[in-house]
Structure formats: C-alpha cells, structure tokens
Amino acid sequence: MAKKSVASLQTGSNRLTKAIKMVKSEKTGAYVFVESIMDPSKVSDFLNKK
Predict the structure, then answer these.
(1) What is the band of 14 on the pLDDT scale with cuts at 50, 70, 90?
(2) Ramachandran region, residue 43 (left: φ > 0; alpha: ψ -120 to 50; beta: rest)
(3) Average pLDDT over residues 10-34
(4) Distance between the two ends of the chain, CA-based, in angstroms?
(5) According to the model, what pLDDT value does residue 5 have?
(6) What DSSP string runs through 1-50?
(7) Other beta carbons within 10 Å of 47
(8) Could you give the angle at the alpha carbon of 14 between the alpha carbons of 9 and 20, nearest 5°?
(9) What residues contact 26, with CB distance under 8 A and at least 6 apart?
(10) Does residue 31 register a pLDDT over 90?
(11) Is-contact 20 35, C-beta < 8 A?
(12) pLDDT confidence tier of residue 22, bands split at 50, 70 and 90
C-alpha cells in the first residue's frame, strides 16, 4: 500500500468520510485505487485491511 487519503463529507445530519487507498493488483502487478464512503469510525479498519 503506497498512499492513503481521507476526506470528510457532510450530508444533512450524517457525517461521512471518503477513504482512498492504493492497492497492488496480484494479477497484473499494477496499482489500483480503491475508494469507499463510510462512517468515520470505520476508516482505520478499511485502511488496515489488505
């Protein structure tokens, strides 16, 4: 994992976070970006998961 990015989003009464991480593909060896919008308390689990 080479790079991590986190941005905060706020929609109405819900507070959400968009997390982006770079993951190396096992098939091609190229890096791909994985994006997810989630609750701020789940960001560290998302970034630590391989």
Answers:
(1) confident
(2) alpha
(3) 85
(4) 8
(5) 63
(6) ---EEEEEEEETTEEEEEEEEEEE-TTT--EEEEEEEE-GGGHHHHHH--
(7) 15
(8) 35
(9) none
(10) yes
(11) yes
(12) very high
Which amino acid appears at position 22 of this protein? M
Task: Enter the pTM of the model.
Answer: 0.62
CA distances from 41 to 1, 2, 17, 36 (A): 21, 22, 9, 13
- Sign of the torsion formed by the C-alpha atoms of 10, 11, 16 and 22: negative
What distance in Å separates the CA atoms of residue 10 and residue 46, rounded to the nearest whole number?
A: 19
What token pair was written down for 41?
Answer: 């308390």
